[in-house]
Write a structure and sequence with these properties.
Strand order of the largest sheet: 5-4-3-8-7-6
CATH topology of the largest domain: Beta-Lactamase
CATH class of the largest domain: Alpha Beta
Radius of gyration: 23 Å
Largest sheet: 6 strands, antiparallel
Strand content: 15-25%
Number of helices: 8
Distance between the termini: 59 Å
CATH superfamily of the largest domain: GAF domain
CATH architecture of the largest domain: 2-Layer Sandwich
Length: 245
């Protein structure tokens, strides 16, 4: 019974994806009749699917032409894929250079809701090192990278996170933005030190946070200053490649 229910759900998902696939092949809106015809779905099934997709903003219906087009959420997913793909591709050589410069773990994070997601990482070769799995998701208010992402987010988003979680203050975020970087020690893990700076994109504000992290005992003052200088240099170069001037 459970397997039958699961197969039914998967079939529904496949049909929904078939509908969305149509819009990859068409540069115009599609009517319900066209959607049903191209997917070989009956009209009632096609209507239920497009109605659900429209309610969830993956499709939108033009009231005049009665045709469907991709909705805001589908377009947002496309932009996110393009943005994260570009950032990941462009940042990888800089992460390698950063790791080679200091032999500490270099990584790049993007904001994803109330979390920060590790997009790329190059680990130190030291036995004692910061290990960051790509795809790791951490609350956005934790760690240097998260604080940078928050400090360059909108005032409304900053206030919401501060009020909802109480883990950081607006004055702390304003200070990070004023100084241009964030530093944390013993926050994500005991004995861990991290420095992060923003990567900016065009006129869209912050795109990601570039960070270097490792054991506090190796992050003495003179090294921190060199790390910060190098982080800013590489972040500025990546930002320039992303269209920020």
């Amino acid at each position: 019974m459970e397997q039958s229910h699961t197969r039914g759900l998967l079939k529904s998902v496949e049909k929904s994806l078939d509908v969305l696939d149509l819009f990859l092949k068409s540069n115009r809106g599609l009517s319900l009749k066209e959607i049903a015809g191209y997917t070989t779905l009956n009209i009632s099934t096609a209507f239920r699917i497009v109605n659900t997709l429209a309610e969830r903003q993956y499709l939108q219906r033009d009231l005049k032409t009665r045709q469907y087009r991709l909705g805001d959420k589908a377009l947002a997913l496309g932009r996110l894929s393009l943005r994260t793909g570009n950032i990941g591709t462009l940042s990888k050589p800089y992460l390698r250079r950063l790791q080679q410069d200091f032999n500490e773990t270099a990584s790049i994070y993007i904001a994803e809701g109330d979390s920060r997601l590790c997009l790329e990482a190059v680990e130190s070769s030291h036995a004692l090192r910061r290990v960051i799995p790509v795809g790791e998701s951490v609350p956005i208010y934790k760690g240097a990278a998260g604080k940078v992402l928050l400090a360059w987010s909108s005032p409304a988003e900053q206030q919401r996170i501060c009020e909802e979680y109480g883990a950081i203050t607006l004055s702390a975020l304003h200070s990070i933005r004023r100084h241009g970087y964030a530093v944390t020690q013993d926050e994500s893990e005991h004995g861990l030190f991290a420095i992060a700076v923003p990567i900016l994109q065009g006129n869209c504000g912050i795109a990601a946070a570039l960070t270097i992290a490792g054991p506090t005992m190796r992050f003495y003052d003179s090294v921190r200053q060199k790390m910060l200088f190098t982080l800013n240099q590489y972040a500025n170069e990546i930002s320039h490649l992303l269209g920020h001037h």
